[in-house]
Write a structure and sequence with these properties.
about 130 residues; mainly alpha; Arc Repressor Mutant, subunit A; Diphtheria Toxin Repressor, domain 2; 2 domains; two-stranded antiparallel ribbon; about 75% helix; about 5% strand
């Protein structure tokens, strides 16, 4: 469900709309599966989906989608601080973002900010990783 909301928001921001065919291409799954999930998201009040017209996020759907994107970006920035290659970061973030708690995200945000603010601390961490 998170992946759908995230992609719908990205599509709306890029194109102004999100069609099932576009979501299908982005997620690499069948259009029928996308349509089924959009109907479910509509029933849960997260999107407004009209057959042949496209999909828009409700206020709650947009809030959740933005939180998903923010979580994804935080995890990506955090791992980049350790000079991990982009392919590994992508795979790891895709797995982590769906399972990390709010408390853990807050801790990662604090550590990320500290690593960005303190070159000395970041250097110490990178040195330990190189051992």
């Amino acid at each position: 469900m998170d992946d759908y909301l995230e992609q719908i928001l990205h599509l709306i921001e890029e194109k102004g709309y999100a069609r099932p065919v576009d979501v299908s291409k982005r997620l690499g799954i069948s259009q029928a599966s996308v349509t089924n999930m959009l109907q479910r998201l509509d029933a849960e009040g997260l999107v407004k989906h009209e057959k042949y017209r496209g999909t828009v996020l409700t206020e709650e759907g947009r809030r959740i989608a933005q939180a998903i994107i923010d979580r994804h970006e935080l995890l990506t920035v955090f791992l980049r601080l350790f000079k991990i290659d982009e392919e590994t970061i992508y795979r790891d973030v895709e797995g982590m973002e769906h399972h990390v708690s709010r408390a853990t995200l807050n801790a990662l945000r604090a550590v990320t900010e500290t690593l960005r603010e303190s070159q000395e601390f970041r250097g110490q961490v990178l040195k330990k990783l190189a051992q």
